[in-house]
Amino acid sequence: MNRWGEHAAGLRSALSDSDRPQSDLGQLIRSAAAGEWLGTAANELAEAIEHHVVRPLPSRLRSGLGRDEAEQLARVLAWAASRELAAKPPSRGVSWGYLANLVRWRVADAVRAEALRRHRHTVVAVLPERSGTPLVEPLGDNLDRIAQELCREGLPLASARRLLLVATDGPRFERAAIAARLTGCGVDRSQADGMAWLLRGGAIHRSALYRLAMGEPPAVVFADAVVRRWVKAAAGRDPGFRAGRTGKAVARTAPGNLSPSLQRTA
To answer: 177: Cβ–Cβ under 8 A, 6 or more apart, which residues?
Structure first.
């Protein structure tokens, strides 16, 4: 009997709330504004907002922000809208439906903004540790050995590694492609040619990279006079380097040794 009695009391309470007469929103706002938003009139407006705006708030808005946060946001928005309506009352008057819809739209905007924020920040919620990430990209044993040799020739090790990364960055590994990648980054033509021969070589003189990969001792490879000339040019210490088909540097003829007809065009 007690259970049925409590249920009947709840139904009577719900019916009494639904049958409660609709208070005039405009009159409540004017009374609260006259009392400077304090006192009994302000409390009556707050209770009416709770009944007509906060309680009917849709469940999807409550779940999007959380029940307490959504209701508190609705109270703040409804109170701010009431003050705006008191300052600039519309000509057609105001109603609880207008105020409730206005609050729902603004709460829905907050729900969408919160969902977008969570979507954007999900991936970077936990930043990865950098301790296990190598600070220097590995080149491989043979290219590292070439970089050390360029460093011995006077080129800084960091610059040597950058040049090797640029030279080997691409599917094409012909000398022309290697030189084009380097000159495209601002490297001098003589230095780019030296690096291209050092990495690609030719039919007669194999590249230092090829000989190292075939297991030839580094001391023997870099003792070769032709390879030494390539290393010197790749390090930027031979600005006059210009290799022919054999990979050997071709000496440039001085303008004074040219014939009179060629001197005019030199």
So the answer is: 170
Instruction: Please report whether residue 126 resides in a domain.
Output: no
Query: Do 109 and 165 fall within a single domain?
Result: no
Domain termination residue (choose one: 119, 150, 168): 119
Contact of 65 with 114, CB cutoff 8 Å? yes
Please give the residue range of the domain that contains residue 242: 141-251
Among the listed residues 131, 149, 157, 159, the one whose alpha carbon sits nearest the alpha carbon of residue 199: 149
- List Cα–Cα distances, 205 to 114, 228, 246, in angstroms: 66, 12, 7
The tens-digit pLDDT sequence of the chain (266 residues) is: 444 444 444 434 443 444 444 468 888 888 888 888 888 888 888 888 888 888 888 888 888 778 888 888 888 888 888 888 888 887 777 888 888 888 888 888 888 887 777 766 555 555 555 555 445 556 688 999 999 999 999 999 989 999 998 898 877 888 899 999 999 888 999 999 999 999 998 888 899 988 998 889 999 999 999 999 999 999 999 888 877 666 666 544 444 444 444 343 33
Q: Are 25 and 99 in contact (CB under 8 A)?
A: yes
Distance in angstroms (rounded) separating the CA atoms of residues 191 and 245: 17
pTM score, whole prediction: 0.45
Question: Half-sphere exposure of 180 toward its Cβ, with a 13 Å CA cutoff?
Answer: 7
